[in-house]
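As a representative case, the lines below give one protein's residues and fold tokens.
***
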Amino acid sequence: MSNNEWKLVETAKEGDTHAFAQLYEKYYADLYRFALCYVKHAQMAEDAVSQAVLKAYESLRKLRKNNSFKSWIFQITANECRKMLGRKEGYLEDISWQEPQKMEEGYAVFELEELLLQLSDEERLIISMSVFASYNSKEIAAILHKKAGTVRSLKSRALAKLRIYLEEQQAE
């Protein structure tokens, strides 16, 4: 964590909403991608991130270590994703379906969802934690209560699956 980011967290903990907004802006895209990998639905991912950010803002003063902000807000997001999945059945019926929106990388949301559906839940979670939350294998292993070597193997297999799927799609 940079010194500037540490100061932003400290300032936000003191009640500065502008500082919190800067932190939100810094992490929103990664939080959204993480949530999308987790829940596999764009609207649910947006709602999970919104709820997580609100909860983070309300309980920011409880954060003990400023340098833990990133992992803390990703954990809150993961908890919100689990809640969303728990009430998914009725939730999806209430969502108004929209045209897919383009993400900054040029992939439509539905393409990313389709790609991620090629993975098991565990593989999707490991990839999202690695790619979007920037956790290393050791950190992911600690969170998931697995060995780091197991996480590396699962990640490697998941990336191989994605590569094969993308090659098949390009060949069509």
User: Anything to note?
Assistant: The CA atoms of residues 9 and 66 lie 6 Å apart. The chain is about 75% helix and 0% strand.
